[in-house]
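User: Can you model how glutamic acid sits in this protein?
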Amino acid sequence: MQMRTRFAPSPTGPLHLGHAYSALLAHDMARSAGGTFLLRIEDIDQSRARPEWEAQIYDDLTWLGLTWPTPVLRQSDRLPLYRAALKHLWARGLLYPCTCNRRDIAAAASAPQEGAPLHGPDGIVYPGTCRHIPDSTQPLPDTALRLNVVRALNVLQHRPMARPLRFTETGTRAGTHTIDPTDFLSQVGDIVLARRDMGTSYHLSVVLDDAAQHITHVTRGEDLFEATQIHVLLQQLLHLPTPIYHHHGLIRDAQGKRLAKRDDARAIAKYRAEGATPHDIRRMVNLA
Ligand code: GLU
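Assistant: Here's the modeled complex, given as structure tokens:
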């Protein structure tokens, strides 16, 4: 199968050196294998996404020498597809509406009998407050939808052609990673698949889009390594293939902190304005 990689930025700020590294790595991997590099705009958070940041993304990546097939897949164009997947999961009894806000969750998770709240790849492990809402309850417009992980694992386990929950990693933690269902329950919990403000979530959208774009190798920062178990679970529930994952190290600042969108000092645009060449950027991220 021809290799297909992707870079999936959110247009919520300027691309910085960390993004340049991620994009160049995905591009170089595909190019050296005779494959295809794709771009995807992850703009489901409409309260933070801005057209000017999206325009800057195209401009910076083109300047870096990257090319990709068009039209570019934009998540904001795909909301009906995310809704259809949620409907399918809902019909199978795998979702429930949740009215908790962050404060409710933090309070319930740190109730005296619970001990210290446990943090998973999706924030505090949800203590299950709304899990027992009767199945017939229709989600209201301002509720989130959570995955009932016990039921989801049960469905997968009892499938005639049950596949092990596992993925192959070729990046910083290379090897085969098998997901233990008991650990998933206690360390990840009932994740939100549709946020009340978005009608979808990063996890659901990323899984559907990687499949829609036929991505064979997901290259991204190692801060998303722990989220991969969520993605593998969703792939199996939605009958989608699991790609190979390649999590790369993060570019850090002089204090060892990972770069954030607000680190304008490391923005590609700033280096460009100061006269840096694309080759200089490649040298800075060790991909020259
Ligand atoms: N949109 C995510 C970000 O900008 C990347 C998600 C992914 O690569 O899976 O951090």
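A couple of observations from the model: The chain has two domains: 1-76+251-288, 78-243. The two ends are 28 Å apart (CA to CA).
User: Helpful, thanks.
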